[in-house]
Amino acid sequence: MKPQNPARALRSIRGYLSPNLQRHSLSRSTSLRLAPATASQAFSSTTSRHHNPTNSTVDPTEVSHFNALASSWWDPHGPSRLLHLMNPLRHGFITQCLSSSPPASHKLRFLDVGCGGGIFAESAARLPSTLSVTAIDPTPEVLKIAEGHKKRDPILAAPGKLTYLNTSIEQLPRPKTPTEAYDVVTLFEVLEHVHAPGPFLEQLLPHVKPGGWLIMSTISRTWTSWFITNVMAEDVLGMVPKGTHEWSKYVNEEELRSWFAKQPGWGSAKSLGTMYIPGLGWKEVSGGEQWGNYFFGVRRDA
């Protein structure tokens, strides 16, 4: 499985090596030059204020793929192993974002979009600072696994503590008032699996409470990320089932910054590069968002 356009990928990598990008700061809120690649063009051209919310950005082939992996979701040594290992970094990045500009709420309400089997949703619901977690996913078989695993913990069974919904973000009712929105909306390893990232993100924004955070993780569209995720992880090491990743759907960090810079009412963004190192697990990597996985958080103005 090779990138759809290697020539553009090579130009993208050369762009990353430019002096301007080498001086890029993780806390910088200004947009950077877009890498010249197919997904970049799709990101900008499909983002429309008039996007019909009934037209789902969910890719049916992705739903089928993850349905097939449902039974192994909670196997820490199975196909979802990398997600289990990444979970501590997820919480660490959320803590960094909230520490820099905490929401007004003392007890946080989470919306976890594309929750899968509930690895993050369960861990977030157990935190003493969490009031509730609503977790949504369009994949029915995976949510059955999530519901079954939830029943093992009496804490999670408390009314309203952790709620799973088999739905897409387009079908989720929008908050009627700011108080009905969420303090933290999370989107972990989802953006690289949707049809059109721009319209998809537009559906997320109204669910974030003023002063709240939208926090996600995804994969940069670079030659290195293709080699790591498609060649090594899927084909060579077999750590991830084949067909899990489509390189052309990856979204670069500066593309997200540029997109959010055009959205009224959204503050400075934060990002954190990460990389999986065999034998050591997931590690923070300076500048890692240019080459592989990265976390990205943006705050809605209060």
Automatic annotation (TrEMBL):
EC number per UniProt: 2.1.1.64, 2.1.1.-, 2.1.1.114
Region (Disordered): 27-59
Compositional bias per record (Low complexity), positions renumbered to this chain: 27-47
MF-aspect GO terms: 3-demethylubiquinol 3-O-methyltransferase activity; metal ion binding; polyprenyldihydroxybenzoate methyltransferase activity
Pathway(s) served: Cofactor biosynthesis; ubiquinone biosynthesis
Function per UniProt: O-methyltransferase required for two non-consecutive steps during ubiquinone biosynthesis. Catalyzes the 2 O-methylation of 3,4-dihydroxy-5-(all-trans-polyprenyl)benzoic acid into 4-hydroxy-3-methoxy-5-(all-trans-polyprenyl)benzoic acid. Also catalyzes the last step of ubiquinone biosynthesis by mediating methylation of 3-demethylubiquinone into ubiquinone. Also able to mediate the methylation of 3-demethylubiquinol into ubiquinol.
Family the entry assigns: Belongs to the class I-like SAM-binding methyltransferase superfamily. UbiG/COQ3 family.
Designated name of the protein: Ubiquinone biosynthesis O-methyltransferase, mitochondrial
Organism in which the protein naturally occurs: Cucurbitaria berberidis CBS 394.84
